[in-house]
Amino acid sequence: MLHKSLVRRLDLITLQLFVAVFEEGTLTRAAAREAIAVSAASKRLMELEQVLGVSLFVRRAKGMDLTAAGETLLHHAQQMLFNVEKMGLELGEHSHGVRGYVRMLANLSAIIQFLPEDLRDFSELHPEVKTDLEERPSNGVVQGVLDGVADLGICSSDTDTKGLPRVVYRRDKLVVLMPADHPLAARKSLAFAETLGSDYVGLHSASSINMRTHAAAREAGQMLRLRIHVPGFDAMCRMVQANMGIGILPQKAFELFGRALGLHAVPLTDDWSDRSLILVVRDEAQLSPVSRLLFDYLSHSAGADR
């Protein structure tokens, strides 16, 4: 079968040459960059196409362009070369006392509000452990842990965790963000339905806050008047400051970004505004020793704001 043949016959040098041809545009420049004779480079590419059974480039007078098959290979080749480089860096650090890596996915709320201090304190206790943290929406966190992309994940508790073991990590409170002179700013608290007459600045469509506010608007029999999507809480605060609308964000995110901009926050009274962030793993019993260290650190006082 083709995939078994690839394992035996593909090599990293040829893949690196293939990527170089794409980036340089000609075989001559790519061969010079990779310090290989043009004839040897041409032979390698021809053998690669023979192994794969497809044409990877369209040869033109002024250069070489990828075919559709070439574009597919490019995506995988770049990822493979990146992973090899990353592997080398990680293995190299073991010679300097690093015991291991923990790969972690977390949603924006956890990264902005809690993880900076928690990971700092953990690193002070365990300087030999490195953490690779990536931000994803809550659904993406769950899928990444299921796929083995990460050892640990932190997401919103209202996310479908698809059977993954879970413990409470932290709790937060959602508030309505608005300019200080907004008509609702004098209120001490608000039901979400009372805000639906205003335009909204929303987070990106995959965020748990965005999905929850849209669901709450539908439950109230109305549509959320979304004026613009933004990628993060800092961008939301700037848009609200510019009178683009109001927004929903965690109280601590407001304290970090909104207060300094002269904005105002009013707590929501809806039950869903009192949220839990949860820690998920694929199989607690199969965690590596260093992943277990971080898991225990983050979950030992489950639900308490340290």
UniProtKB/TrEMBL annotation:
GO terms for molecular function: DNA binding; DNA-binding transcription factor activity. It comes from Pseudomonas palleroniana. Residues 10-67 form the HTH lysR-type domain. The lineage of its organism: Bacteria, Pseudomonadati, Pseudomonadota, Gammaproteobacteria, Pseudomonadales. It comes from the Bacteria. GO terms for cellular component: cytosol. This is DNA-binding transcriptional regulator, LysR family. The keyword DNA-binding applies. Pfam families: HTH_1 (PF00126), LysR_substrate (PF03466). Keywords: DNA-binding, Transcription, Transcription regulation. The keyword Repeat does not apply. Belongs to the LysR transcriptional regulatory family.
